[in-house]
Design brief:
Oligomer: single chain
Number of strands: 9
Number of helices: 12
Strand content: 15-25%
Strand order of the largest sheet: 3-4-2-1-5-9-8
Structural class: alpha+beta
Helix content: 25-40%
Shape: globular
Radius of gyration: 19 Å
Number of domains: 1
């Protein structure tokens, strides 16, 4: 078996220094609060994998910067698309057993399987803090981490009582690394800021005073089905969206606040209230 130093794939893999330089070239600056959505597969080979990517992002942000990632957990809900996909074709008995085995959310331990390897790398970092929402938590590392993740109301997915509003207030940037605008959670905050806000009921498994229990709450009906269109309009609007290749991935960098403000206008104009539920 060839030594990895003789392996062309290893030799061509991104290292931390190169990745940091490419992130700087994209426009990431020290001291930034950066909400990052990523697909590391698109980057191509990286020496050290997701750990190297986190180190490069933190190096680009510097000691005064804060890295934020979504650590969503739709697996503990029976009102999520993930759940509906899991129960397709199951018998009633199999569904009942699946529901019985669904673990309650624990911010210290519940993995964020649906948001990728980078999110898990940040979530499990010894310096990371995580918000406590049982379905739409965020993890953060850096000086503003506590300010951003604290006070995430359990009845508010991604609205005014969530880290999203705090990211808006602190003037965060958004990095889409190997993913498109369909993954842009900033647009969800806009759903809370349109004149008409359809709502729906959500269910998830939590631990309440030590006991596993199902919990229900009502919140804005989240819908990302047209976020690609919102993003395309945002780019056409003349907003400062910086795009470049990082590794082998297309990356975009833009202001969180500008994205939300544009999406409020777009959603108000293009989403009739009754359709959004």
């Amino acid at each position: 078996m060839a030594h990895r130093l003789d392996n062309p794939a290893f030799l061509s893999a991104l290292d931390e220094e190169t990745l940091t330089a490419e992130l700087h070239a994209l426009g990431i600056r020290p001291g930034t609060v950066l909400l990052t959505h990523s697909s590391l597969r698109g980057l191509g080979p990286v020496r050290g994998g997701s750990r190297t990517v986190v180190r490069a992002l933190r190096a680009a942000l510097g000691p005064d910067g804060t890295l934020v990632v979504p650590t969503f957990t739709p697996e503990n809900s029976d009102t999520s698309p993930v759940y509906r996909q899991r129960v397709q074709g199951l018998t009633a008995a199999q569904v009942a057993e699946l529901r019985r085995r669904m673990p309650p959310f624990d911010p210290a331990y519940t993995p964020a399987r649906s948001t990728g390897r980078l999110a898990e790398e940040v979530r499990t970092h010894p310096e990371a803090l995580r918000s406590s929402h049982p379905q739409t938590s965020f993890a953060a590392i850096g000086p503003l981490a506590r300010r951003i993740v604290s006070g995430h109301a359990p009845r508010c997915h991604l609205g005014e009582d969530s880290p999203m509003a705090k990211l808006y207030d602190v003037g965060a940037q958004v990095l889409l690394l190997g993913v498109g605008f369909a993954s842009c959670t900033a647009f969800h905050l806009a759903e809370y800021r349109v004149p008409e806000k359809p709502v729906r009921e959500y269910h998830c498994v939590i631990r309440d005073r030590g006991a596993r229990t199902w919990w229900s709450f009502t919140d804005v009906a989240l819908d990302d089905s047209d976020f690609v269109d919102v993003g395309a309009s945002f780019e056409r609007s003349g907003a400062a969206v910086r795009a470049a290749t990082v590794g082998r991935a297309t990356a975009r960098l833009f202001a969180f606040r500008a994205a939300v403000d544009h999406a409020v206008g777009w959603l108000t104009a293009h989403r009739p209230g009754p359709r959004r539920g």
